From TrEMBL:
<keyword id="KW-0862">Zinc</keyword>
<dbReference type="InterPro" id="IPR013154">
    <property type="entry name" value="ADH-like_N"/>
</dbReference>
<dbReference type="Pfam" id="PF00107">
    <property type="entry name" value="ADH_zinc_N"/>
</dbReference>
<dbReference type="GO" id="GO:0008270">
    <property type="term" value="F:zinc ion binding"/>
</dbReference>
<dbReference type="Pfam" id="PF08240">
    <property type="entry name" value="ADH_N"/>
</dbReference>
<comment type="similarity">
    <text>Belongs to the zinc-containing alcohol dehydrogenase family.</text>
</comment>
<feature type="domain" description="Alcohol dehydrogenase-like N-terminal">
    <location>
        <begin position="25"/>
        <end position="153"/>
    </location>
</feature>
<dbReference type="InterPro" id="IPR036291">
    <property type="entry name" value="NAD(P)-bd_dom_sf"/>
</dbReference>
<keyword id="KW-0560">Oxidoreductase</keyword>
<dbReference type="InterPro" id="IPR011032">
    <property type="entry name" value="GroES-like_sf"/>
</dbReference>
<keyword id="KW-0479">Metal-binding</keyword>
<dbReference type="InterPro" id="IPR013149">
    <property type="entry name" value="ADH-like_C"/>
</dbReference>
<protein>
    <submittedName>
        <fullName>Glutathione-dependent formaldehyde dehydrogenase</fullName>
    </submittedName>
</protein>
<feature type="domain" description="Alcohol dehydrogenase-like C-terminal">
    <location>
        <begin position="197"/>
        <end position="266"/>
    </location>
</feature>
<dbReference type="InterPro" id="IPR002328">
    <property type="entry name" value="ADH_Zn_CS"/>
</dbReference>
<dbReference type="GO" id="GO:0016491">
    <property type="term" value="F:oxidoreductase activity"/>
</dbReference>
Length: 391
């Protein structure tokens, strides 16, 4: 089959690889009908997340049709079923899965000793996302083996196009969880850093959850326009002062809730000298992340407020203003998304027409054009916000 394969830093190719097979009774194989490129894939593209090996198949936003099931799938799935695959592989049985903490499932990371060593405790296995989380082949491919498939799936009805359902795999529940983590009250201002696909889903979620005011921050005009169309007031951090505008928009109090939808690769620019220092430290391996957004959020957040971090961080972040964080009495919530905790509700909202997540798609291309689209998405060329690939 054809698949997008990681060969090294900024080197992803569409290769012919061996078709996946059932390896365990709980496996299923799907024929992929649609898959997408995520901002998290860019961290791998740039080799900022350790634990990728040449030959790894990329991709964790995937849906398709079940073509084979193992003997242990227990009637939960059958040939012909249409499923969206959550990016978190879950067993459905361990203590964390029972609590709904699916992204920290205790069973599914088949390289758990690596997770234990690096993070203190293992987290869930993830598709197409480093050997720290199991090194499972991803879904930017013609076929995907879904381990623990009896639990790891979202069954979706016929009659709704892939484009509306695909993002149940990741970015829609991710934006939703980031907003839910804020305990939004009707008087709240929610400020969101990053208007990429995750930021866009977060904006819509914060509005659906009843925020009084949503403010979206980025520097890419098309992404800011999309944010505005979704109901946000926008700040372009390249041409305006984030601190001054937030101050003005909140009568000097600061936003009650701040969401990081940017993560470890904050833009590097001379007007934000901390980002220059972070980049220099990254180059000599003194720091793994560029946490400008975390610093800014802690500084502007209203005392007593909540900092919700959806953006991915990989290792160590310097100069986090703990003094401000502690003295202002802030709370931080974060995590890879517990996808299946949210998807019954979100699927219902899509079916009822409350939201159509396909608004974020700007490019739909054949899988073979994937390598080129990694560059286009990374460089935000051609007004690119979200790429869907068709195998
Ligand atoms: N927690 C999870 O489970 C989960 C799931 C999916 C994605 N993610 C993470 O979410 C983040 C965003 O993903 P995406 O797909 O939207 O990626 P993306 O790279 O398209 O979006 C990031 C956006 O942040 C903007 N940005 C950069 N520096 C900024 C700054 N200083 N202030 C404000 N905005 C800034 C960029 O211009 C860009 O539009 C990534 O870190 C990704 O890994 C997390
Ligand atoms: Zn993702
Ligand atoms: Zn589990």
């Amino acid at each position: 089959m054809k698949a997008l394969v990681w060969h090294g830093k900024e080197d992803i190719r569409c290769d012919t690889v061996t078709d996946p097979e059932i390896q365990d009774p709980r496996d299923a194989i799907i024929k992929v009908t649609s898959c997408a490129i995520c901002g998290s894939d860019l961290h791998l593209f740039h080799n900022f997340i350790p634990g990728m090996l040449p030959g790894d198949i990329m991709g964790h936003e995937t849906m398709g049709e079940v073509v084979e099931v193992g003997s242990g799938v227990d009637g939960k799935l059958k040939k012909g079923d249409r499923i969206v695959v959550p990016f978190t592989i879950i067993c459905g049985e361990c203590d964390q899965c029972k609590r709904g903490n699916f992204s920290v499932c205790e069973t599914t990371n088949r390289k758990r000793q690596l997770g234990d060593k690096v993070f203190g405790h293992t987290t869930a296995g993830l598709f197409g996302y480093t050997h720290l989380t199991g090194g499972y082949p991803g879904g930017q491919a013609e076929y995907l083996r879904v381990p623990f498939a009896d639990a790891t799936h979202i069954k979706v009805p016929d009659g709704i196009p892939d484009e509306q359902l695909l993002f149940l795999s990741d970015i829609f529940p991710t934006g939703w969880q980031a907003a839910v983590h804020c305990d939004i009250e009707p008087t709240d201002t929610v400020a969101i850093w990053g208007c990429g696909p995750v930021g866009q889903m977060t904006i819509r979620s914060a509005i659906l959850l009843g925020a009084n005011q949503v403010i979206a921050i980025d520097c890419i005009p098309e992404r800011l326009s999309m944010a505005e169309a979704g109901g946000a007031t926008t700040i372009n951090f390249e041409t305006e002062s984030v601190l001054e505008r937030l101050d003005h928009l909140t009568d000097g109090r600061g936003p009650e809730k701040c969401i990081d939808a940017t993560g470890m690769e904050s833009h590097v620019m001379a007007s934000q000298p901390d980002t220059l220092l972070d980049r220099a430290k990254q180059m000599v391996m003194l720091e793994s992340d560029r946490p400008h957004v975390l610093r800014e959020m802690i500084y502007v957040c209203r005392p007593g407020g909540i900092i919700s971090v959806a953006g991915v961080y990989s290792g160590f972040s310097d100069k986090i203003p703990m003094g401000a964080f502690m003295n202002k009495g802030l709370t931080m919530r974060t995590g890879q998304t517990h996808v299946n905790r949210w998807t019954d509700d979100l699927l219902r909202r899509i079916e009822q027409g409350e939201i159509d997540p396909s608004f974020v798609i700007t490019h739909t291309v054949p899988l073979e054009r994937g390598p080129e689209m990694y560059q286009v998405f990374r460089d935000k060329r051609d007004s690119c916000v979200k790429v869907v690939l068709k195998p």
